[in-house]
Structures are given as C-alpha cells and as structure tokens.
Design a protein that fits this description.
Number of strands: 23
InterPro entries: Ald_DH/histidinol_DH, Ald_DH_C, Ald_DH_CS_CYS, Ald_DH_CS_GLU, Ald_DH_N, Aldehyde_DH_dom, P5CDH/ALDH4A1, Proline_metab_enzyme
Organism: Kineosporia corallincola
Strand order of the largest sheet: 14-17-18-13-12-20-21
Pfam families: Aldedh
Catalytic activity: L-glutamate 5-semialdehyde + NAD(+) + H2O = L-glutamate + NADH + 2 H(+)
Strand content: 15-25%
Shape: globular
Structural class: alpha/beta
Number of helices: 15
Distance between the termini: 51 Å
Helix content: 25-40%
Bound molecules: nicotinamide-adenine-dinucleotide, 5-oxo-L-norvaline
Keywords: NAD, Oxidoreductase, Proline metabolism
C-alpha cells in the first residue's frame, strides 16, 4: 500500500469500577473460578508452538494460598533456549520486512482484545498468580498494557517520521530506522503483567525478534499474554518465551554473537550482573548490545511544614501499601516535620492497622500477600531487625504470617537515625520508614535526600507553600526520574508521566515513550545526490 497513514489517536484506557452487582464483576467472577480450578500447563513458546521445557518442574502457586497450585512449568534447558533463539533468527527477515502499519496493527488489535473479550481472563490470571486486588490488576494488566501498545504504536510512527532537518541543493537526505541486527533478550519482573508484556513487544514493534524470559512467579499471566498475542496475529517466532530462574537462559543468550540488546526490568543486582556478563563477552558480539534496564527504588515522600495532613496520609497509605509495596515506585521512606507529625501520627497508625489484607478474591481487601517465600523471609528478617533496634518504633504492623499465604502486615516504622538501613534499603514490600525532622531543617533534609540517595526512581513533595515546592523541585532534581507534587509517588500513566529513574534505578529510557523505542532501532542515514560531481578538483585549486 502506498500511503502516509495515521494510527488511531491513543487514549488512556479508563479503569472500570468492578462494584458488586456490576457487569465487570459479573464477567470477572467466572474467569476467577475457571483459572482457580485449572492446573495450567505452562509451556515455553518457541517458533509459535507451545513446547514443554526439558528442565525441572516448578509449581506456580497463589501467594495468598500457597498450597494451591495454579500451574506448572518445566524450565528451559540450554537446548530449549538455543532453539528459541534460532526461531527468533528465522523469523527476523520477514518480520523486519513488514511495514510499521502491519506490525502496529497486531499490537493495536491485541489492545482491543485485551480491553474487550480478554479483559476478565487477563485480570483473573494477574489477581490469582500475582496476588493483586481487582483495582491493582485492572490498572496494570489491562489499562497500562493497552496503553503501552496503543501509545507505542503512535510513538513508533513519530520515530519513523523523524527525518534530517536539512537538504543541500541537489541532495535528498533520508533516515532509515532499522531494527537491530540480532535478537533482543527481554527479562521481566513478577510485579507488573504490563511491564512483562511491554518489554518483549516494544522491541518487536520496532521490527526486532525477541527471546522473552518472564519471572517464574509471573508465569501464569505471561502464558495469557502469549495466547493473546497469538490471537492478535503475532507471527510465529517473533517473541519466543522460555521459562526458568534466569541463569541457565542467560548462559546461552549472553554468549550468542547475535545478542543485539537486553530489555530488562527487575532488581538492581540482577541488572548489574547481566551488564557485567555482557561486558565480559563484548568482543564476541556482532554489534554492541543495547542495554536498557529499569531497576530498584527507595522512593521518598518529603513533607513540608505547610503539608495538608489528609493529602499526606493518603499519599503514604496508598503509596506504601497498595499491592503490598511491591511496586518499584512504592513510597518506602517518608520525611515528616515534627509539627505535621503531631497531627499525622495517630491517623496514619489507625488507618494502617485497619487496612483489610487477605485474598484478592475477597473484593473488600485493600491488599494481599507478598509474592513468595523468599520475599516473606526477607520481610520477616527486616521486621525482626526493626523490633530489636534502639531508635526504631514499630508504630503499626510489624507482624507476618505464612501459615496460609505469604502475608506481611502493612508496617510503619518511626526511625530516629536518618542513616538507618530502613531508610535506604529496598525491601520491596509493605514497610514504610518515617523519619521525623525539626521543621526548620526542611532544606537540609531535602539536600540530604538529593545527595545520599543511591536510587533515583520516584519521589514526592507534599506542601502548600509554593516557595517550598519550587525549592524542593530544584534541590531534588536528580533524586527522582518521576517526581510528584501533592500526590503519591506510584501510578504513572503511559503517555502522561513517562516512567523510569536514574542512578541505581536504571538507564531511565522511559518505558512506553519514544525514548525507549528509539533504543530498539539502528538508524541508517541515506544521502542521494541528484547531479553528482564529475570533476575531482576543488575550486581553491584554480
Ligand atoms: N524501575 C522499574 O520500572 C521497575 C518496575 C518493576 C520492578 N522493578 C524492580 O524489580 C524488582 C522486583 O522484581 P523481581 O523480584 O522480579 O526482580 P529480580 O531481579 O529478582 O528478577 C527479575 C527477572 O530477572 C530474572 N533473573 C534473575 N537472575 C537472572 C539471570 N542471571 N539471568 C537472567 N534473568 C535473571 C528473574 O527470573 C526475573 O525474570 C525490584 O527491585 C523493583 O524495584 C523496577
Ligand atoms: N509504573 C508503575 C511502577 C512500576 C514498578 O513496579 C508506577 O508508576 O507505579
């Protein structure tokens, strides 16, 4: 087709309410029952086929009812991974030859299926497999994922439209935004179905083929993503999913000369390990692999003496405890002036203690269990340390119970020492550390956060005083890639607040934005001369 086309203008998918008796709830309930009652076989997807892995079986359990097995996968062996990379290699020429309109159409169709007939099943898999309440599942697995696909289709076209600014007389300059040579390795986290799906699909949209290794604890919703993409018409071999903990898959993928890029989201430690491995192998690759990673956070809320206490309390409770603090953006430390603390303390304690925690299938719950036994043990140790440390008061929570599921109670610690580990270590769970400071020290505290933060992902200032807001914006300029004024530091929306952080929080390539898509292209500049020179001499030569 010869045409300069447009994609439908992207609009953020609105979350639905799921109130009792409503149509959304009615559609969701049978999907929950169906997935709960089925022990799914979670296969690898290689060259479009569902292929059981040759490795050890791993059960995927409901984190809030750990004895309930939702599905089982067998980890990919080295041979499985080699076959998956080969499938990506085979699919690459035909996929790159498709126009951006054709590639975008597949993701736009996937977004429409997701927000239509696949909505209930996608939410149900995310609720059960990752222990999300319906609200948290809806804003992630449906709304954010549909937004990634619709906005990326729009942004990709902006990139393709980017052409040289100037043409000398008799010359036509063009830019060809090619895919990378080789395959992209997408390694994804447990906590967001949307991030897990965006990491392989964003490079695919730009014409690349992909090896995708999801987190073992997200294996169930990853299976539904693959089924959905197949239903939307994604050709075999464009995205090849292999299961496993990671090191075995990396052992093959990082040693392949065709590794063209890594698209990672997860912990800082894993990302740094992958980067080091690429560094060790750098002379073996055909190209320099593009390395894009969004990683950990220790996200702050800084309150000013002018803060509205109700705004602050809500920002802390939602920011710290929604999805049990298992968002890279979660508010896990707060700095509160003494005058505000006097008015906040009791309400924060009471609200936190009263938060309903339990199975996400009980719609009255605000949050649920942490993801697995490893996360539970880490939190139990952190709570025991806090209880035993002089200068830390456990204001709310402080308890954990794994008799049924991996439950850690929403916890508020009041911490005297601003250098305590609870104010600098990412626990990745429902623990909020609060440091109370003298009102006069606002600027000093802001400067300390800016200087000492190892991470720089999200942060918030809560203040009514505009001078204070302006000063904090400036002082904290490099302390957060996503900065919020009078709001919680979670819940970035695609197309509105492009998401990502710097320092140990990642390469800040902004998922769901043109900056990210640009990393999956390798531009070729083309100069065409209409009347080429015929004389080799230059004018100064006489
Ligand atoms: N900045 C962001 O946008 C963002 C978003 C979500 C999560 N996160 C971060 O992710 C972390 C939580 O997620 P997680 O527990 O899934 O992280 P993780 O690092 O434990 O795991 C991430 C992925 O890496 C895999 N992995 C581990 N070792 C590997 C190896 N050697 N080779 C290949 N893959 C390997 C895991 O199996 C998983 O798929 C937190 O630190 C959180 O802040 C960041
Ligand atoms: N984009 C999400 C965070 C993803 C990390 O886990 C937010 O803004 O809350």
């Amino acid at each position: 087709m010869d045409a300069i086309t447009n994609v439908p203008a992207p609009v953020n998918e609105p979350p639905r309410p799921y109130t009792a008796g409503g149509a959304d709830r009615a559609a969701l309930e049978p999907a929950l029952k169906e997935i709960w009652g089925t022990r799914a076989e979670l296969t690898n997807w290689i060259g479009g086929e569902a292929v059981p892995g040759g490795g050890e079986p791993t059960d995927v359990v409901a984190p809030f009812e750990k004895s309930h097995v939702l599905g089982t996968f067998r980890a990919a062996t080295a041979d499985d991974t080699t076959r998956a990379i080969e499938a990506a290699r085979q699919a690459a020429p035909a996929w790159a030859a498709l126009s951006i309109d054709d590639r975008a159409a597949i993701l736009l169709k996937a977004a429409d299926l997701l927000t239509g007939s696949w909505r209930a099943v996608t939410n149900a898999a995310t609720m059960l497999g990752q222990a999300k309440t319906i609200y948290q599942a809806e804003i992630d697995a449906v709304c954010e994922l549909a937004d990634f696909w619709r906005f990326n289709a729009h942004f990709a076209r902006q990139i393709y439209a980017e052409q040289p600014a100037a043409n000398s007389p008799g010359v036509w300059n063009r830019m060809d935004h090619r895919p990378l040579e080789g395959f992209v390795y997408a390694v994804t986290p447990f906590n967001f179905t949307s991030i897990a799906a965006n990491l392989p699909t964003a490079p695919a949209l730009m014409g690349n083929t992909v090896l995708w290794k999801p987190s073992p604890t997200q294996a169930l919703s990853a299976e539904y993503t693959m089924r959905l993409l197949a239903a939307a018409g994604l050709p075999p071999g464009v995205i090849n999913l292999v299961h496993g903990a990671g090191p075995e898959v990396s052992g093959v993928a990082l040693n392949d000369p065709d590794l063209a890029g890594i698209h990672f989201t997860g912990s800082t430690a894993t990302f740094q390990h992958l980067w080091q491995e690429v560094g060790k192998n750098i002379t073996n690759y055909r190209s320099y692999p593009r390395i894009v990673g969004e990683t950990g956070g220790k996200d702050f809320v800084l309150a000013h003496p002018s803060a509205d206490v109700d705004v602050l309390r809500t920002a802390l409770v939602r920011g710290a405890f929604e999805y049990s603090g298992q968002k890279c953006s979660a508010a896990s430390r707060a700095y509160v002036p003494r005058s505000v603390w006097a008015r906040l303390r009791e309400g924060l304690a009471e609200t936190t203690k009263a938060l309903p925690v339990g199975a996400p299938t009980d719609f009255a719950n605000f949050t649920s269990a942490v993801i697995d036994a490893r996360a539970f043990a880490k939190h139990q140790a952190a709570l025991e340390r806090a209880a035993a440390t002089a200068g830390i008061e456990v204001l709310a929570g402080g308890t954990a119970d794994d008799s049924t599921g991996y439950f850690v109670d929403p916890t508020v610690l009041v911490v005297d020492d601003p250098a305590d580990e609870s104010l600098s270590t990412e626990y990745f769970g429902p623990i909020l550390a609060v440091h109370v400071y003298d009102d006069a020290d606002f600027d000093r505290v802001a400067a300390g956060i800016a200087k000492d933060s190892k991470y720089a992902l999200t942060g918030a200032i809560i203040a009514q005083d505009r001078q204070a807001v302006a000063r904090a914006m400036e002082t904290l300029r490099f302390a957060a890639g996503n900065f919020y004024i009078n709001d919680k530091p979670t819940g970035a929306v695609v197309g509105q607040q492009p998401f990502g952080g710097a320092r140990a929080s990642g390469t800040n390539d902004k998922a769901g934005a043109p900056q990210n898509l640009q990393r999956w292209t390798s531009t070729r500049s083309i100069k065409e001369t209409f009347e080429p020179a015929l004389d080799w001499r230059y004018p100064h030569m006489g």
